[in-house]
Amino acid sequence: MDNNYTYEEISSQVKSWKENFDVIIGEKTKISTDLFSKDFDRIIFFGCGTSYNLAMASSFFTNTVSGFDSIALPSSELLFNSETYIDKGKNYLLVGYSRSGETTESIEVINKFKNQEKIRTFAFTCREKNSFIDVSENHYVCRGAEEKSIAMTRSFSSMLFSYCIMLTRYLDNKDRLKEFSGLCTYLESKIPLLFGEVKEYIDANDFNSYFALGSGFNYPLAVEADLKMKEMSRIPEYSYHIFEFNHGPKALLSEDCLVLFLTISKKLRNVDIIVDEIIKNRSKIAIIGKGIKDLKKGGNIRFFLEDASFEDELVESFINIPVFQI
Amino acid sequence: MDNNYTYEEISSQVKSWKENFDVIIGEKTKISTDLFSKDFDRIIFFGCGTSYNLAMASSFFTNTVSGFDSIALPSSELLFNSETYIDKGKNYLLVGYSRSGETTESIEVINKFKNQEKIRTFAFTCREKNSFIDVSENHYVCRGAEEKSIAMTRSFSSMLFSYCIMLTRYLDNKDRLKEFSGLCTYLESKIPLLFGEVKEYIDANDFNSYFALGSGFNYPLAVEADLKMKEMSRIPEYSYHIFEFNHGPKALLSEDCLVLFLTISKKLRNVDIIVDEIIKNRSKIAIIGKGIKDLKKGGNIRFFLEDASFEDELVESFINIPVFQI
């Protein structure tokens, strides 16, 4: 972390998640219905930098839990390659993310499409007044998520959490809502100690490069872990889909390298082959969550939040966020 | 480049493109019709490593020039997250790439889906006999594209070229076919000198890291440039959508860094802002193709294949491939 603001922002994020949970679940608001009840063939999520990673995560969540079809794009790609992504015969819901609401390309996206009959627009932001809200048809302002740091931490997780709660509420999935609520309780009890644990581990090692690996919903989170490291520590950092790591990128493994595995889904097979390959290269491994069965624990593998135990793997993935932010 | 095989494979790739062009355009074959005439709602392109980059490029090309809907996925992601990507009510055409035809995850993808009524499968490979062909419903073997090197160079471009020719032929776009033919003539005359030019430039500078930037069809090519550098030179290398570079990654710019811009589309605006930012950080820039209007030429910007002049920007993008491979 780069400064005290960031420390405070990472620590307080679960408070912001809970605040947004209450607002979105609250009987009086109809945000979820407003967002999803329109007629559309596809949702396109968009944003820049961290907000693009947010868009990718939202898209994976949507495609997994609902019947909606969605894709995620960097704002600039949607802006400059619209003939590739917009089929004039179809209806679209464009959902954009911008912490400040002043990101140039994201505002330009809305301005380009807002008067087209078949396109609806929705903006997620963390400030009450901004240009993104002004141009969008509908919007949601995340509570308690504004930040003073340059790097987005709390704002990233709060916007993602809020979107996931909206969709879960719209689908009326009470079990998943309960899991999200349990997630907040779990992380609130864990974050204070986690800071010390992660810091101690990083200080005890002198890593010269990082890899972040994740599959499915965890892939965009791995890309975000990568981007946060680039912004904060300025040492080489890479992110890949877990199994893509073996098809080329592993060439960069070395002794002082840390490979971070985000929570590993039970669906995955043969992750141990990749783990063995990394150990063979004398790199170190950190795993968030309980990891995989029969993994030989040793000096080269370190676990964080190993006791996390959620029914729903998408919800469990949120435990990755505070770990990589620290 | 790592060895003489790779040199020979890069040099001879245009010969392989022409061979495949003739086969696919030839009156007697009906490959294009076989591939596209089936009833499907979406094409899913898949592959591992370089072949995944190939899948992303094929998907962008398809979405841009045809009315087909497509996405690209790493084989492992399609395999382990199929409930996210396969909607049981829809028809799919799965198009996979594997040079050897023995890539484990890609074969597993076909095995998982081949008996499902609503799913068709098609394999691209560079060898006559292999497991991928055995399990797939239909296939195309790229002529003259097999390789001895570990790194895929000629096989990457030949499979991509072949796919693009198939779709262009199916759509009966004679202008684009003519451009593809002109591309071969242009590159055949340029590649011999290009080797010396690129090598001289790299040797004269002592770069300690590389960025490859591209938008649209050029983004997956930038990712491939990145992967080739990782496999061959083992120094830090990153790839981004052009405008995403400004949202975080630029933090890693330094004096001995080279930023490679793949051919820049006329549709893009404000690329000069990014160029200025890079120059301000005293990094160097290499641009493939004619670049952008009013760009101040100076010691920090080097052009390659500046005289390339194609009507069709998708076709022009192929000139990037031999430059970054060298």
List the SSEs and their pairings.
The structure is a homodimer of 326-residue chains.
Chain A: H1 4-11, H2 13-25, H3 31-36, E1 42-47, H4 50-65, E2 70-74, H5 75-80, H6 82-85, E3 92-97, H7 104-113, E4 119-125, H8 131-135, E5 138-141, H9 154-170, H10 174-204, E6 209-214, H11 218-232, E7 237-241, E8 257-261, H12 271-280, E9 284-288, E10 301-304, H13 313-316, H14 320-325
Parallel strand pairs in A: 1-2, 1-3, 3-4, 4-5, 6-7, 6-8, 8-9, 9-10
Task: Describe this entry's structure for a reader.
Two copies of one chain form a homodimer. Chain A is α/β, with parallel strands linked by helices. Chain A has two domains: 4-172, Rossmann fold; 192-325, Rossmann fold (3-Layer(aba) Sandwich). In chain A, 46% of the residues lie in helices and 16% in strands. Chain A has 14 helices and ten strands. Chain A has helices at residues 4-11, 13-25, 31-36, 50-65, 75-80, 82-85, 104-113, 131-135, 154-170, 174-204, 218-232, 271-280, 313-316, 320-325, and strands at 42-47, 70-74, 92-97, 119-125, 138-141, 209-214, 237-241, 257-261, 284-288, 301-304. In chain A, the strands form two sheets. In chain A, strands 2-1-3-4-5 form a five-stranded parallel beta sheet, with helices on both faces. The first copy, chain A, has a five-stranded parallel beta sheet with strand order 7-6-8-9-10, with helices on both faces. In chain A, β3 (92-97), α7 (104-113) and β4 (119-125) form a beta-alpha-beta unit. In chain A, α2 runs parallel beside α9 and α2 (13-25) runs antiparallel to α10. The N and C termini of chain A lie close together (6 Å). The model of chain A has no long low-confidence stretch (mean pLDDT 91). The interface between A and B is large, with 44 and 44 residues.
